Request: fold
Amino acid sequence: MSRMVFTNAYLLVNNVDLSNRVQTVAVNRQADKVEVTAMTATGKEYLPGLRDDSIEVTFRQDFASTSVDQTLDPLFAGGSTFLVKVAANGSSFSATNPVYSGTCALFEYSPISGNVGDALDAPTVFAMANGGSIVRGTA
Reply:
Protein backbone atom coordinates (compact mmCIF):
# COMPACT_ATOMS: atom_id res chain seq x y z
CA MET A 1 0.00 0.00 0.00
CA SER A 2 1.39 3.37 -0.95
CA ARG A 3 1.64 6.22 1.51
CA MET A 4 1.47 9.89 0.78
CA VAL A 5 2.29 13.25 2.23
CA PHE A 6 -0.80 15.45 2.07
CA THR A 7 0.31 18.48 0.03
CA ASN A 8 -2.00 18.71 -2.99
CA ALA A 9 -5.62 18.71 -1.77
CA TYR A 10 -8.24 19.74 -4.32
CA LEU A 11 -11.28 21.74 -3.16
CA LEU A 12 -13.99 23.04 -5.46
CA VAL A 13 -16.78 25.17 -3.95
CA ASN A 14 -19.65 26.25 -6.18
CA ASN A 15 -17.41 25.84 -9.27
CA VAL A 16 -14.59 27.94 -7.75
CA ASP A 17 -11.26 26.16 -7.17
CA LEU A 18 -10.07 27.26 -3.71
CA SER A 19 -7.36 24.59 -3.39
CA ASN A 20 -4.52 27.09 -3.07
CA ARG A 21 -6.11 28.62 0.05
CA VAL A 22 -6.74 25.36 1.98
CA GLN A 23 -4.75 24.91 5.18
CA THR A 24 -6.71 21.89 6.50
CA VAL A 25 -9.57 19.82 5.12
CA ALA A 26 -11.54 16.90 6.56
CA VAL A 27 -14.29 14.88 4.90
CA ASN A 28 -16.54 13.58 7.68
CA ARG A 29 -18.94 10.75 6.84
CA GLN A 30 -21.07 9.55 9.71
CA ALA A 31 -24.39 7.94 10.46
CA ASP A 32 -26.43 7.78 13.63
CA LYS A 33 -25.96 4.56 15.57
CA VAL A 34 -29.53 3.26 16.02
CA GLU A 35 -30.11 0.52 18.56
CA VAL A 36 -32.43 -2.20 17.24
CA THR A 37 -32.02 -4.78 20.02
CA ALA A 38 -35.07 -6.99 20.57
CA MET A 39 -36.02 -9.88 22.81
CA THR A 40 -33.83 -13.00 22.65
CA ALA A 41 -30.74 -10.96 21.76
CA THR A 42 -27.64 -11.74 23.78
CA GLY A 43 -26.06 -8.36 23.09
CA LYS A 44 -27.02 -4.99 21.74
CA GLU A 45 -27.68 -4.75 18.02
CA TYR A 46 -27.27 -1.63 15.89
CA LEU A 47 -28.02 -0.37 12.40
CA PRO A 48 -26.77 2.76 10.69
CA GLY A 49 -29.36 5.51 10.85
CA LEU A 50 -29.58 8.97 9.34
CA ARG A 51 -26.44 10.40 7.78
CA ASP A 52 -24.80 13.58 9.03
CA ASP A 53 -21.90 14.19 6.64
CA SER A 54 -19.83 17.37 6.52
CA ILE A 55 -16.67 18.87 5.07
CA GLU A 56 -14.57 20.98 7.43
CA VAL A 57 -12.03 23.38 5.93
CA THR A 58 -9.68 25.93 7.38
CA PHE A 59 -8.88 28.42 4.68
CA ARG A 60 -6.02 30.88 4.61
CA GLN A 61 -8.29 33.89 4.23
CA ASP A 62 -8.16 35.98 1.07
CA PHE A 63 -10.56 38.84 0.30
CA ALA A 64 -9.58 39.15 -3.39
CA SER A 65 -12.03 38.62 -6.24
CA THR A 66 -12.90 34.92 -6.83
CA SER A 67 -11.06 33.90 -3.66
CA VAL A 68 -12.23 32.74 -0.24
CA ASP A 69 -14.39 35.52 1.20
CA GLN A 70 -15.93 36.65 -2.08
CA THR A 71 -16.89 33.04 -2.80
CA LEU A 72 -18.12 32.00 0.66
CA ASP A 73 -19.81 35.11 2.06
CA PRO A 74 -22.62 35.21 -0.55
CA LEU A 75 -23.20 31.47 -0.11
CA PHE A 76 -23.51 31.86 3.66
CA ALA A 77 -25.66 35.00 3.48
CA GLY A 78 -27.96 33.58 0.82
CA GLY A 79 -28.46 30.18 2.43
CA SER A 80 -28.19 28.53 -0.98
CA THR A 81 -27.02 25.01 -1.81
CA PHE A 82 -24.04 24.27 -4.04
CA LEU A 83 -21.63 21.51 -5.04
CA VAL A 84 -18.44 20.84 -3.06
CA LYS A 85 -15.74 18.44 -4.27
CA VAL A 86 -12.65 17.27 -2.36
CA ALA A 87 -9.78 15.03 -3.45
CA ALA A 88 -6.49 14.18 -1.76
CA ASN A 89 -4.15 14.68 -4.70
CA GLY A 90 -5.26 17.23 -7.28
CA SER A 91 -8.14 17.27 -9.74
CA SER A 92 -7.34 14.12 -11.75
CA PHE A 93 -9.75 11.69 -10.13
CA SER A 94 -9.17 7.94 -10.29
CA ALA A 95 -9.36 4.78 -8.20
CA THR A 96 -6.19 5.94 -6.41
CA ASN A 97 -7.39 9.57 -6.07
CA PRO A 98 -11.13 9.40 -5.41
CA VAL A 99 -13.25 12.54 -5.25
CA TYR A 100 -15.74 13.06 -2.43
CA SER A 101 -18.62 15.36 -3.33
CA GLY A 102 -22.04 16.49 -2.28
CA THR A 103 -24.64 19.23 -2.44
CA CYS A 104 -23.89 21.39 0.57
CA ALA A 105 -24.98 24.45 2.47
CA LEU A 106 -22.57 26.65 4.39
CA PHE A 107 -23.50 26.34 8.06
CA GLU A 108 -20.40 27.80 9.72
CA TYR A 109 -18.13 30.47 8.29
CA SER A 110 -15.75 32.56 10.38
CA PRO A 111 -14.29 35.12 7.96
CA ILE A 112 -11.75 36.39 10.51
CA SER A 113 -10.01 34.00 12.90
CA GLY A 114 -6.53 33.92 14.41
CA ASN A 115 -4.13 35.12 17.06
CA VAL A 116 -1.76 38.05 16.90
CA GLY A 117 1.11 37.20 14.58
CA ASP A 118 -0.68 34.19 13.04
CA ALA A 119 -1.91 33.74 9.49
CA LEU A 120 -5.47 35.00 9.04
CA ASP A 121 -7.70 31.93 8.83
CA ALA A 122 -11.33 31.27 7.95
CA PRO A 123 -12.68 28.07 9.58
CA THR A 124 -15.64 26.73 7.61
CA VAL A 125 -18.12 23.84 7.83
CA PHE A 126 -20.05 22.65 4.79
CA ALA A 127 -22.89 20.27 5.65
CA MET A 128 -24.96 18.16 3.32
CA ALA A 129 -28.20 19.82 2.29
CA ASN A 130 -31.63 18.31 1.75
CA GLY A 131 -30.87 15.01 3.47
CA GLY A 132 -28.01 14.15 1.13
CA SER A 133 -24.72 12.49 1.85
CA ILE A 134 -21.14 12.68 0.61
CA VAL A 135 -20.57 10.43 -2.38
CA ARG A 136 -17.26 8.83 -3.37
CA GLY A 137 -16.41 8.83 -7.06
CA THR A 138 -13.47 8.08 -9.33
CA ALA A 139 -14.30 10.25 -12.35
Notes: The helical segments are 68-78. The chain has a mean pLDDT of 96.
